[in-house]
Amino acid sequence: MNLVRITQQKKNVVLAALVLFSISGPAVAATAQSGWGGWLIEQLTQHPELIAARHKIEINQAIAQGYQQPLYNPELETELEHEGSDNNIRIGVSQTIDWWDKQAARQQQGQHSLTSAQQAYQLLLQQKAAAALQTLIEWQLAGEQAQQARNQENQLGTLIELVRQRQQAGDLGQLDAELVYLSLSQTLNTTAQAVVQLKQLEVSLRQQLPDWSAQRLQPTQLAGAIDRSAADAEQIGQWVDQFPEVLAARAEWKLAQQSAQLTRVENRADPTFGINAGTAGDDTVLALSFSMPLQLRNNYSAETETAQQQVLAAEADYLALRRQQQFAIESSQVTLDEYRQRYEHWQRIMQGRSERTETLLKTLWSNGDMNTTDYLLALQQINEGLIAGLELHSRYQLAHIDWLLQTGQILAALQQLK
């Protein structure tokens, strides 16, 4: 078996994550109708957590819309007074004035809350996409490991027949046959574990992608990979600033600022003006009124100080998260580069080597130049080398997905995937 061919189908899975894609909550329905990538996004948006996140966006949209409305409504005032034989009647209207422009602070609050909810949805969608692609890669790795174990079973089954023939010819003893049987029993256990893992991953994929089936992913449907060049500090900074979790933290910081501003102005009294008219006996009465709360006993300075400390805490959280994300990107990039170098090196040194080695070993054993114990040990080493190559390639692809997730590019133009 050519060692390079085993990676072709699994390589196609990661290509789905290597195309840049940007999507907001309301845009999901529009993009979910095209190609394999659109199908994947559509499947992910059916997850209950994402449905809940979309409802939170709708809630914050309603709150933001409510904050755009005037803060105070006019008040209707009426009074009926019986004085002697006279009935005194007054009716009027009063209006509290938003003297300190509290409505503007509330509007900003609503917008920042909405931004935070939208970015939380973006982050969750990216995480779900990364998890689905990771599971696909693990599923393909399990399938390849199971196939490799079956190949080894068949190989040992053929070897048993050859051992029997050589026993009849007097070339081998009973011990050689027993060693082959023991190797086959170990392989049966390995195959069983690989198949079980494969089935478990299929269940996990159906849980993540309700309409998924093994036939859904076809190599011809996937687009080519984007060539990733090394990123400088400026590029990493841009990725950090656009990362959904960082944007959400920044929105929370701005929200805290607006909340502190609102706390300051809410603790300032707003004046109320009124006008009323009526009758007092035979006379007509017209009156103007003015009222203003006097903040003599409590100036609410403690509340203002609390709000300001919350701003500082939110700013510190934002800066800490931004710094954390920057190092996460650098770490994922180093990991990706290392796995890529090792995998490419593995490809160069193992190109066609396993087939040639297997042929050589079989010839040596058949000619009696190698005993059965050494032959089985060599076959086991070849198999372990194949499995190691599969795992190395899988880790390389998983590192690719992690890098795309950390840089905020995991949802990559998925509708381009036909």
Can you describe this structure?
- The protein has helices at 8-15, 28-31, 35-44, 48-67, 102-169, 174-208, 233-242, 244-266, 301-350, 353-366, 372-406; strands spanning 75-83, 86-96, 272-280, 283-291.
- By secondary structure, it is an alpha+beta fold.
- It has a single domain (5-61, 101-268, 301-416), classed as Up-down Bundle (Outer membrane efflux proteins (OEP)).
- A four-stranded antiparallel sheet has the order 1-2-3-4, with no helix packed on it.
- A hairpin with a 2-residue loop joins strand 3 and strand 4.
- 31% of the residues are buried.
- Residues 1-33 and 218-227 have low confidence and may be disordered.
In short:
The protein has a single domain, classed as Outer membrane efflux proteins (OEP). α5 packs antiparallel against α11.
List key phrases describing it.
Outer membrane efflux proteins (OEP); 9% strand; 418 residues; four-stranded antiparallel beta sheet; single chain; 4 strands; alpha+beta
Number of domains: 1
User: For the largest beta sheet, what order do the strands appear in spatially?
Assistant: 1-2-3-4
How far apart lie the N and C ends?
30 Å
Order of helices and strands: HHHHEEHHHHEEHHH
Query: In CATH terms, what is the architecture?
Result: Up-down Bundle
| Average residue pLDDT | 77
Main sheet characteristics: 4 strands, antiparallel
| Helix-strand category | alpha+beta
Describe the oligomeric state of these chains in a short phrase: single chain
Quick one: CATH class?
Mainly Alpha
Sequence stretches where pLDDT stays below 50 over 5 or more residues: 1-33, 218-227
The number of strands is 4
Helix content: 55-70%
CATH homology superfamily name: Outer membrane efflux proteins (OEP)
Percentage of residues in DSSP E strands: 5-15%
Q: Over all CA atoms, what is the radius of gyration? A: 36 Å
The CATH topology assignment is: Outer membrane efflux proteins (OEP)
| Apparent shape | rod-shaped
| Number of H- or I-type helical stretches | 11
